[in-house]
Amino acid sequence: MTVNPTDTALWPAPYASGAVAATVHVPGSKSVTNRGLVLAALAAEPGWLRRPLRSRDTLLMVAALRAMGVGIEETVSSSSAGAGDSGEAWRVIPSGLQGPATVDVGNAGTVMRFLPPVATLADGPIRFDGDPRSYERPLHGVIDALRALGARIDDGADGNPGALPLTVHGGGALDGGQVEIDASSSSQFVSALLLSAPRFNQGVEVRHVGSALPSMPHIRMTVDMLRAAGAQVDTPEAGGEPNVWRVTPGALLGRDLTVEPDLSNAQPFLAAALVTGGRVTIPDWPAHTTQPGDALRRIFTEMGGSCELTEQGLTFTGSGSIHGLDVDLSEVGELTPGIAAVAALADSPSTLRGVAHLRLHETDRLAALTKEINELGGDVTETADGLHIRPRPLHGGVFHTYDDHRMATAGAVIGLAVPGVQIENVATTAKTLPDFPELWAGMLGN
Ligand SMILES: O=C(O)C1=C[C@@H](OP(=O)(O)O)[C@@H](O)[C@H](O)C1
Ligand SMILES: C=C(OP(=O)(O)O)C(=O)O
Predict the structure, then answer these.
(1) Catalytic residue among 205, 260, 331, 334
(2) For the chain, which terminal residue's Cβ has fewer other Cβ atoms within 10 angstroms, N or C?
(3) Do residue 362 and residue 297 come from a single domain?
(4) Domain extent at residue 321
(5) Interface ipTM
(6) Which ligand is nearest to the CA of 408?
(7) Pocket test for ligand 2, best of 334, 339, 369, 431 (most atoms within 8 A of CB)
(8) CA of 218 to the centre of ligand 2 (A)
């Protein structure tokens, strides 16, 4: 068992004495980087990832793939395509996947869900372990499905079947075929099975049975990236059956992929414009994307700002007032902590719905947001599937983060408007945004 080194020091969240005016370069998307790594590792030829996110979650993915025999070379590229493409680039060189190996998943949902299917293709045992919280996060959908598709997996050694730690006894290949799963607790179950499926002997047909599936944009991201790597995928959107995805077996191409900025990590910076009545530009905001963070253009506009997408990027401008809203966040659950932070500072109440599955994210996000905002004087109650937030004047105090990067950034947003907020363990932002304190200070001109 490994534990993320936690930093219990208190970080005084900067208070904004005026409107922010800044351009913030946000690092690459976690979700795109980790999908790109998996697909490149499974490809029939080498590929490139340019401007990858370098954070705890993506470096765990790199280490895991290397442990199974994949070559990943880190270089600084200066592409002939122009200065905009220069910067860090990872060259991924696929090879026969090998065990024995040990994978540390940390608390990365993408690593703990996307890699067991990859491990079934390895020759030899691959052991998976991670942070204590990773033992509590749902994995049964992946484990049960892989078994049904022909894999041999040892789980439950710690009396916790259907969860980590576990060992996948890779046989060098997997039959694949049809499988039913209940992915209502995490869309990553579906993404995990689809990503490796071109390499299964019969591909896969995944049928989701159960209550509503969260985070659909992330499944669309999986499908788009598979298709861009040459895979044939049938989806419900393309006239297929509802809740059924099919991937045909076939070789994957090595791609040259430039990773988009992480739009969910752009959230606290956009929120800063909203909260201070200022203006923030995020360069390289994609015109078309499957990232859920793109929904911030609509959601934060409804909360009181306006935005414009130009050649310079996305510029978001706050109006000086912040309104509450009633919104279903089931498609964009990972945006909830940042929206809750803004909602706590609004001029009217908010209801955030459709996010019961956040109780099984990095921490129980509904409980954590309720407790921490209320300890600063707020009035938040949990509902069956979300939060009611009634804004009240807030005061300073310690904002605990529970090893959750998005709790830390949510606390920082509140700190802009409330003097004396101290974030416990801001270093937990390293999961997806290691430079957060520096970027935040830079935005504020400090
Ligand atoms: O596939 C992905 O990259 C993700 C899917 C979502 O997971 P859930 O469906 O478990 O919420 C999201 O919350 C997570 O941050 C990233
Ligand atoms: C839920 C999240 O992460 P994970 O990929 O670990 O599920 C998140 O980043 O908000």
Answers:
(1) 334
(2) C
(3) yes
(4) 10-27+260-443
(5) 0.99
(6) 2
(7) 334
(8) 11
CA 363 / ligand 2 centre spacing (Å): 10
**In the numeric block, which tokens belong to residue 151?**
């894999």
Alpha carbon nearest to ligand 1 atom 12, residue = 334
Residue 19 lies in a domain: yes
Q: Check whether residue 187 and residue 291 sit in a common domain.
A: no
Beta strands in 121-203 (DSSP E): 123-129, 153-154, 166-171, 177-181
* Three-class secondary structure of residue 40 per DSSP: helix
**Is residue 334 annotated as part of the catalytic site, yes or no?**
yes
Within this chain, do residues 420 and 320 fall inside the same structural domain, yes or no? yes
Residue 125 one-letter amino acid: P
Exposure string over 17-33, b if 16+ CB within 10 A, otherwise e: eeebebebebbbbbbbb
Number of domains comprising the chain = 2
- The finding on whether 197 has its CB within 6 A of some atom of ligand 2 is no
Task: Looking at the structure, tell me whether residues 240 and 346 fall in a common domain.
Answer: no
Domain boundary among 221, 239, 258: 258
> Does 188 count as an annotated binding residue?
yes
Query: Hey, is 109 helix, strand or coil?
Result: helix
Do 238 and 152 lie in one domain? The reply is: yes
**Orientation angle between helical segments 140-148 and 109-119, nearest 10 degrees:** 10
Q: What is the pTM of this model?
A: 0.96
Q: What is the DSSP letter of 261?
A: B
Compute the distance between CA of residue 341 and CA of residue 422 in angstroms, rounded to an integer. 15
The reply to whether 317 falls in a domain is yes
Pocket test for ligand 1, best of 31, 264, 331 (most atoms within 8 A of CB): 31
Encode the chain (446 residues) as per-residue pLDDT tens digits. Answer: 334 445 569 999 999 999 999 999 999 999 999 999 999 999 999 999 999 999 999 999 999 999 999 999 999 866 544 444 557 999 999 999 999 999 999 999 999 999 999 999 999 999 999 999 999 999 999 999 999 999 999 998 878 899 999 999 999 999 999 999 999 999 999 999 999 999 999 999 999 999 999 999 999 999 999 999 999 999 998 788 899 999 999 999 999 999 999 999 999 999 999 999 999 999 999 999 999 999 999 999 999 999 999 999 999 999 999 999 999 999 999 999 999 999 999 999 999 999 999 999 999 999 999 999 999 999 999 999 999 999 999 999 999 999 999 999 999 999 999 999 999 999 999 999 999 999 999 999 98
Asked if 190 and 138 touch (Cβ cutoff 8 Å), the reply is no
